Amino acid sequence: MCIDDTMKLGLSSLPFVHASIEEAIRASAKLGAECVEIVYDVPHFPPGYDNRKLPNIKELLDTHGLQVSVHASFWDLNPASHHRELWELTLKQVRRSIDACRALGGEIVVVHFGRCPIHVTRGFLEGTKRRYLKFI
C-alpha cells in the first residue's frame, strides 16, 4: 500500500514485543507495510544475540517484499553518557546494530541522541556534546 508515488508505509517491530521477530515481520506484511523498522534490542535481539541467524530473517523479509531499516539498541544505553564504560558499551551495541542492518539488506539505522542528566550545567553539557560528536 503506497501512500503516494514517493512515500512508503513502514511499521516498527515495537508493537510486536510479545511475538517473535518472524511473527512481527509477517504481521507487518499482512497489515500492508512496505518496510519494517526492526528494533535491534530486547525482546527480539537481546545482548549477545547470534547475528548468524540474521540471514533467515533477511530471507523472510525478502519473501514478503519488505524493505528494512534498523533502530539501533537503546534500552539502558546512552551515547551521551559521561561514564566511559557505558559510552563504550553503547558504541559497541550501535555498531552491532549497524552490522545487523547490513546483514538484513537495510540502508538506514536510527540512533538516539541519548540524554544528558545535567544539561543546565554549561561545562557538563559541552563535554556531553563532544562525547556525542565523537560517538557519531
From TrEMBL:
Domain Xylose isomerase-like TIM barrel per the UniProt entry, residue ranges: 26-115
PANTHER family: HYDROXYPYRUVATE ISOMERASE, XYLOSE ISOMERASE-LIKE TIM BARREL DOMAIN-CONTAINING PROTEIN
Record's protein name: Xylose isomerase-like TIM barrel domain-containing protein
UniProt-listed InterPro entries: IolE/XylAMocC-like, Xyl_isomerase-like_sf, Xyl_isomerase-like_TIM-brl
Source organism of the structure: marine sediment metagenome
Lineage: unclassified sequences, metagenomes, ecological metagenomes
